[in-house]
């Protein structure tokens, strides 16, 4: 009888221990961003694609910030999050636009002499040439701000530049020829909430 009770006690302890482990693995369904993390690094660590992390967290760009919580599993209700996401885009009546002004815009690539292709916020533009990123003067537009640039589209303020002072921006264009074609122009920029 003592052996049976001992076996039952061991079995209960194993059950309690393994259920605690399941809670630990469930906690791994959310990642808290640390300094130096990138979406690629997180995707490799947790065996999840960058595309899924962006989709499951409604990210428009790969810009992430320390202490940000990222979902690593598919959310139960995707439909409701997409409808609320659409309402945050600026519309013709300017809903969601915090500020609007004119800037002088030039273009840059990730392949200039001496360029690493990595932005001030850690985005690797050589590995992610489809990102829409602008370089800004952080005293005018804070890094990480979502924007809409006339003639360029929705982007993230993810970089700075030594010549970017005041109401000037640089739009990232992956192709050198197209960057030259952009030239210098005055455009309207909308700061989004």
Superfamily at the CATH H level of the largest domain?
RlpA-like domain
Q: Which class best fits the helix and strand makeup?
A: alpha+beta
Shape descriptor: globular
Radius of gyration: 23 Å
What's the number of helices?
5
- State the end-to-end CA separation: 68 Å
Tell me the major beta sheet: 6 strands, mixed, barrel
- Give helix % range: 25-40%
CATH class identity of the largest domain: Mainly Beta
Mean pLDDT: 79
CATH topology of the largest domain: Barwin-like endoglucanases
Structure description:
There is one protein chain. By secondary structure, the protein is of the alpha+beta class. It folds into 2 domains: 26-75, Membrane-bound Lytic Murein Transglycosylase D, Chain A; 95-192, RlpA-like domain (Barwin-like endoglucanases), CATH 2.40.40. Helix content is 30%, strand content 23%. The protein has 5 helices and 8 strands, in the order αβααβαβββββαβ. It has helices spanning 2-27, 39-46, 50-56, 79-87, 176-182, and strands spanning 30-32, 69-71, 97-108, 133-135, 146-149, 153-159, 168-172, 185-192. A 6-stranded mixed barrel has the order 3-7-4-6-5-8. A two-stranded antiparallel ribbon has the order 1-2. A hairpin with a 3-residue loop joins β5 (146-149) and β6. The termini are far apart. 20% of the residues are buried. Residues 15-27 and 78-93 have low confidence and may be disordered.
């Amino acid at each position: 009888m003592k052996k049976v009770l001992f076996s039952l006690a061991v079995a209960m302890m194993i059950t309690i221990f393994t259920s605690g482990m399941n809670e630990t693995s469930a906690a791994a369904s959310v990642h808290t961003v640390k300094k130096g993390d990138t979406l690629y690094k997180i995707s490799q660590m947790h065996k999840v694609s960058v595309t899924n992390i962006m989709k499951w967290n409604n990210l428009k760009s790969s810009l992430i910030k320390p202490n940000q919580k990222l979902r690593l599993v598919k959310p139960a209700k995707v439909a409701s999050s997409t409808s609320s996401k659409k309402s945050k885009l600026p519309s013709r009546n300017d809903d969601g636009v915090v500020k609007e002004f004119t800037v002088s815009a030039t273009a840059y690539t990730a392949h200039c002499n001496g360029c690493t292709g990595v932005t001030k916020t850690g985005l690797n533009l050589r590995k992610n040439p489809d990102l829409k990123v602008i370089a800004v003067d952080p005293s005018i537009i804070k890094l990480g701000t979502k924007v809409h640039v006339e003639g360029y589209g929705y982007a993230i303020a993810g970089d700075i530049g030594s010549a970017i002072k005041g109401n000037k921006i640089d739009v990232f264009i992956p192709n050198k020829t197209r960057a030259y074609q952009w030239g210098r122009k005055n455009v309207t920029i909308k700061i989004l909430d």
